[in-house]
Each structure stands twice: as structure tokens, then as C-alpha cells.
Amino acid sequence: MARIAYVDQDACISCNLCADTLPDVFRMNDAGLAEVYDPRGASEEAIQETMDACPVACIHWKS
Ligand code: SF4
Fold first, then answer.
1. Which domains, and CATH codes, for the chain?
2. Which terminus of the chain, N or C, has fewer Cβ atoms within 10 Å?
3. Is there a contact between 61 and 36 (Cβ–Cβ < 8 Å)?
4. Where are the transmembrane segments (predicted)?
5. At residue 1, does pLDDT exceed 70?
6. Average pLDDT in the 2-21 region?
7. CA separation, residue 44 to residues 13, 15, 19, 21, 49 (Å)
């Protein structure tokens, strides 16, 4: 089963990198924090690369 990513919004610094890189997966919410709105909007490999690029490493896989 595909892994599902989520953003730890307590740690997100609103840099927009994830939403800019994978706009089909991540978006910035009304509070200016990133969220996953379509966990299947990109391959796991692409999501992993964005996780690794997040400057505060606050994107994680569930379980
Ligand atoms: S890359 Fe990380 S810090 Fe930047 S907006 Fe996305 S979740 Fe937040």
C-alpha cells in the first residue's frame, strides 16, 4: 500500500518549497502552513525528494 505523507505544521516555516516543487501534492493553507491535500499527486520517490529538501525536515510518512 502506498505510503501517505503529512506535514508537521508545528515545525513548518512556510518556505513554500514543497508547494512550489510538488503543487499536486502540497499546498499552503490559509494560515500559511503547508499541508498535503493529495497524497497520491506524485510518486513516492518525488515526495521523498521533497521531504529531503524541506529545510526543517517536517514532512513525514505516516506510520
Ligand atoms: S518545505 Fe517544509 S518548511 Fe517549507 S513549506 Fe514545505 S513543509 Fe513547510
1. 5-61 (3.30.70.20)
2. N
3. no
4. none
5. no
6. 97
7. 23, 21, 16, 14, 9
Q: How many angstroms does the Cα of residue 9 sit away from the middle of ligand 1?
A: 9
Place of cell 513525514: 60
pLDDT greater than 90 at residue 2: no
DSSP 8-state assignment for residue 40: T
Going by C-alpha positions, the residue among 56, 51, 31 that lies closest to residue 39 is: 51
25 lines ligand 1 (CB under 6 A): no
Give 26's contacts (C-beta < 8 A, 6+ positions apart).
7, 18, 19, 34, 35, 36, 37, 50
**How far out from the chain centre does Cα 16 lie?**
10
